[in-house]
Amino acid sequence: MAKLQVAIDLLSTEAALELAAKVAPYVDIIELGTPLIKQEGLKVVTAMKAAHPDKLVFADMKTADTGALEAEMAFNAGADLVTVMGTVDDATIKGAVAAANKLGKKVVVDTIGVKNRVQRAKEVSAMGVAFVELHAGLDEQALPGYSIQTLINEGIEAGVPFSIAGGVNANSIKDVLAAGAEVAVAGGAIYSAADPAKAAEALKAAFN
Ligand SMILES: O=C(CO)[C@H](O)[C@H](O)COP(=O)(O)O
């Protein structure tokens, strides 16, 4: 069964915990966004896991070097999943995977900035990552002509376990799931909604 991941791109632990409390009944994975971790440090990961021990906590580390070290730091803080950038040296990804295997946790590769996402998704999947996040970041989404359909098509083509992040919302979630995504990641569609719980509930309803 596919999972719904809420990406919390807010900037304080208090705001993140408040949002998570509202949407937890409808999501499977709680992501602490990169800006949030940079602002608050890994203590936000610890606080979130303590508040929601039944959920998978995803630390969007976007690691670019010292893969084993950064993954271990996040795992020891309470993360179940961490991200490593797909653009970096294979050694960084393999280091993070080794740390994950040692601690019984998982690594996700983020494809922001990857030129050929389909090819890189296949390469990194062979390195033991849990899945590949086919991702257009917030800056890329703001460019003229951006369409999430590109990511959806690439997921189908790649033929490896993938998630999709980059503007998942009520209009696109059915297509994301129909493409076979293991995880649909929604940030702004939930945290910017007037009623985040209702927005998360509506997204989750698409999984039935
Ligand atoms: O990792 C991120 C940005 O780098 C976001 O959390 C991710 O893109 C999901 O948010 P949204 O649904 O608002 O695009």
UniProtKB/TrEMBL annotation:
According to its UniProt record, which protein family does this protein belong to? Belongs to the HPS/KGPDC family. HPS subfamily.
What is the organism field in this record? Rhizosphaericola mali
Q: Which GO terms describe its biological process?
A: 'de novo' pyrimidine nucleobase biosynthetic process; L-ascorbic acid catabolic process
Q: Which Gene3D superfamilies match?
A: Aldolase class I
Question: What keywords does the record list, in alphabetical order?
Answer: Carbohydrate metabolism, Lyase
Membrane spanning residue stretches = none
Q: Which domain of life is it from?
A: Bacteria
Pathway listed for it is: One-carbon metabolism; formaldehyde assimilation via RuMP pathway; D-fructose 6-phosphate from D-ribulose 5-phosphate and formaldehyde: step 1/2
Protein name, as recorded:
3-hexulose-6-phosphate synthase
Q: Which EC number applies?
A: 4.1.2.43
SMART domains, per the entry: OMPdecase (SM00934)
Reactions catalysed, semicolon-separated, are:
D-ribulose 5-phosphate + formaldehyde = D-arabino-hex-3-ulose 6-phosphate
- GO molecular function terms attached to this record: 3-dehydro-L-gulonate-6-phosphate decarboxylase activity; hexulose-6-phosphate synthase activity; orotidine-5'-phosphate decarboxylase activity
Ranges for domain Orotidine 5'-phosphate decarboxylase come to 3-203
